[in-house]
Amino acid sequence: MFSLRGQVRVTSQGRSGDVVITLPDGEVRFWWEFGGGTCIAIVHVPDAQQWHQQALLHPYPRVAFLEALAGEVSALQCPGATHKISENFLEFHH
User: Fold this and answer.
1) Which of 9, 59, 2 is nearest to 29 (CA)?
2) 59-64-67 Cα angle (round to 5)
3) Is 67 helix (H, G, I), strand (E, B) or coil?
4) What is the tens place of the pLDDT at every residue in 1-29?
5) What is the pairing mode between strands 16-23 and 8-10?
6) For residues 90 and 39, is the Cβ–Cβ distance under 8 A?
7) Is 51 exposed, middle or buried (0-12, 13-18, 19+ CB in 10 A)?
8) What is the pLDDT at residue 1?
9) Max CA-CA distance within the chain?
10) What's the pLDDT at 2?
């Protein structure tokens, strides 16, 4: 199982910010914002094509990486939330 334990931090600038992932070769940042309704937050992520074009990300399997990221973000910011991975978003719901 892929793990990002201890490699993720979330910054906030009001109602949005960055999810920062520290990898062996550098940092990756994904922008997040608060959601509405049952959606707690949305993290903007590269689609599959963009993923393979980014040097820091392409070595990692996209779905496994995003599942691990969802687990870390949920533990840090919204324990108990469910998540959904789509083409460009990682969504957290209650």
Assistant:
1) 9
2) 135
3) helix
4) 789 999 999 999 999 999 999 999 999 99
5) antiparallel
6) no
7) middle
8) 73
9) 38
10) 86
Residues across the chain: 94
Look at the alpha carbons of 67, 46, 27, 42 in this order and tell me if their dihedral is positive or negative: negative
Token output for 51 = 């993923």
- The pLDDT tens digits of the residues spanning 48-90 come to 999 999 999 999 999 999 999 999 999 999 999 999 999 999 9
Alpha-carbon dihedral angle through residues 9, 14, 18, 19, given to the nearest 10 degrees: 40
Place of tokens 């070769």: 25
Neighbours of 56 (CB within 10 A): 13
